[in-house]
Amino acid sequence: MPDRSGVPFPSYRGNFLALRNWRQSSWLLLGRDATSKCIRGVAFIVVPRNYFDSQAIQGDVGMKIAARGANFIVAFLKSYGPSNLKRYFWDREFAGTKWDFIDRTEGDCVYENLEKYANNGSILDLGCGPGNTANELSTDAYQKYIGVDISEEALGKARRRTVETGRGNRNFFVRHDFVNYTPEQEFDVILFRESMYHVPIGKIKETLNHYIKYLKTDGVFIIRIATSDAEHAGANKPRPMAMVQLMEREFDVVEKRRYEHVSRPMILVLRPKPLT
Ligand SMILES: C[S@@+](CC[C@H](N)C(=O)[O-])C[C@H]1O[C@@H](n2cnc3c(N)ncnc32)[C@H](O)[C@@H]1O
Prior knowledge:
Number of helices: 7
Number of domains: 2
Distance between the termini: 69 Å
CATH topology of the largest domain: Rossmann fold
Bound molecules: S-adenosylmethionine
Helix content: 25-40%
Structural class: alpha/beta
Strand order of the largest sheet: 7-6-5-8-9-11-10
CATH superfamily of the largest domain: Vaccinia Virus protein VP39
């Protein structure tokens, strides 16, 4: 029998607790929140038996693989899980510091596009986050803004910032899963700003089709989607690129532009194809 004594059982590395050894071929991973230390995700990974015999899987390398596995599962559940689980994971993240970097995004490329298409009218922002769009967009660009988000933590930030900016008469927020939200009016712009990524790719067409009836006659969808990141050093990330291609196929593209920020955000302005 190989000596596995070097592999701790259980062991903590950062925010992951790995319980290994069930039939020598699997790891149960418990991911914990960095600040509260509460368990926030569970993953079960089966690895071929002889994999454990290699030194490479042991110690920190093993933990990195475990961490990646757990991250992958949380990301999967945030897009494909039931609404209450999605809400749980998003709330935990917004309660911590993970998303603090989107609190202030003045000057973002999305604003010039919103200002062009909002017609000083109405905007529906699906996956609105902490209220950056609602409070950074020029007040000359719109009269009414509705932000929808699954996370009450994010919406709390959005509402507080709206009070600070004095926009309470035009910014409104609703907690809902955008996959099945039913608006009560039509909009000049329906926006998915860095939130389309969380719609299962097989549901993008269905989700946009659901919202078509809430676009005004000349209304448009605006999609902002990051297509790279520092890890990819400017190279395309496959999943967002596949999403872009799918939307281009299914809708009329009014505008498409890729910006030279490190995340290479793509802006797509879409209209429904005319009925034939
Ligand atoms: C990456 S953040 C983007 C926030 C903001 N739009 C921005 O670009 O700064 C994604 C947002 O989408 C929200 N979200 C993810 N899945 C959702 C869903 N199914 N329904 C509603 N909101 C969702 C998250 O809570 C989060 O606020």
